[in-house]
Design a protein that fits this description.
Elements lengths: L2 H6 L1 H11 L3 H9 L4 H11 L6 H18 L8
Helix pairs in contact: 2-3, 2-4, 3-5, 4-5
Length: 79
């Protein structure tokens, strides 16, 4: 991955590391303050690579809700 991809995915990678470490509460706190919808989408792609456990399914639903909330107030569509 190039340097640009690394910085763009930095937030998602950090939150994903929390999830993989089992620190779901801290991950949720970070997801609540996600910088952009794109960051959440990148996190969702990372989460999709994990084996779905009941806890991960709950987290995925939470992430989707936060993505919807972050996207809602904007009138434009992101690409």
């Amino acid at each position: 991955k190039g340097a640009m991809a690394r910085t763009k995915n930095e937030w998602a990678a950090k939150v994903f590391a929390l999830v993989r470490a089992g620190n779901l509460e801290m991950a949720r706190a970070q997801i609540k303050v996600a910088p952009t919808v794109g960051d959440i989408v990148r996190l969702q792609a990372l989460l999709a690579e994990l084996s779905p456990t009941p806890a991960l399914r709950l987290l995925a639903a939470f992430v989707e809700e936060e993505r919807a909330l972050l996207a809602a107030p904007r009138l434009h569509r992101s690409p």
